[in-house]
Amino acid sequence: MDAKAKISKQMDLPKGMIRLSAPIESDNIVNGDGLRAVLWTQGCPNGCVGCQNPETWDYEKGHLAGIKDVITELSYLNGQAGLTFCGGEPFVQPKACKEIADYVREHFGWNVWSFSGFTYEQIKEFGGEPWEFLKSLDALIDGPFILKQRDLSLKYRGSKNQRLLHLEYGTGKILSIE
Questions:
Q1: Strand, coil or helix: 130
Q2: CATH assignment of the domain containing 145
Q3: What domain range is 172 assigned to?
């Protein structure tokens, strides 16, 4: 299945809900810059060989959580610099992720990062809600995990093909690439 077909496999969620694979994490220092909250999203069409989270692939597993409940839980976390969306694949439920991202930026002053098995170019080409979610980010770690390119020395990435893209909030323009 090509990338466009995979990204078009969007999750069908009830209004005001997000599907998560794990409890909200706080005080994380490995999934972005500074002390961070992490949302582990459920559902991924990519199925990367060697993925560290294969339990997050199934679209029906994990648990549904109310977006308002997630925001309330995030509001109780002290000392966080930002929020990172991990997965699974956050871009298969972009509307819910964007709603949370916009809220924490506006009300908590947090920066927002996301991982994706899709590349920036694939998300931009697909457009729609995935692109709108991307425009709400400060950084994107993009590209599928490729086991043959695994490199544990890379900051925030698992394989050499993946990039850390610093983005201009609101436009999605790439400001720098690591």
A1: helix
A2: 3.20.20.70
A3: 3-25+32-177
